[in-house]
């Protein structure tokens, strides 16, 4: 992998991982998130905790270079589902456009991370 590709990969992966860790932290520590999940979006409160745990696990899996590439594929797939589901959830409750578009922006950054990942090349070359 070229130096440029490594830089793009690590910046995009870092952005995704930091955003996921920050949102997981917010889900656990911010009392307003209970209201957002339960009343505004209509999700049960336990889903907030499950999503926080999944985001932490996925972020750690993407950042650690020694994790098997097939496991990283599952983390990418999980984050794709999270971003698409977030877009649908915000659309369904009529949220402002920035709440609807932001998950798609992060989906684009995730796509950059995936595309520039050396793991993707090794996974399909076998």
TrEMBL record:
Keyword Transmembrane helix: yes
Membrane topology: Multi-pass membrane protein
Gene Ontology cellular-component terms listed: membrane
Domain of life: Bacteria
InterPro entries, alphabetized: DoxX, UCP030066
Protein keywords: Membrane, Transmembrane, Transmembrane helix
Predominant subcellular localization, coarse grouping: membrane
Intracellular or extracellular location(s): Membrane
Pfam families: DoxX_2 (PF13564)
Signal peptide: none
Bilayer-spanning residue ranges: 7-28, 48-67, 74-91, 97-116
Protein name according to UniProt: DoxX family protein
Organism field: Flavobacterium shii
Phylogenetic placement of the source organism: Bacteria, Pseudomonadati, Bacteroidota, Flavobacteriia, Flavobacteriales
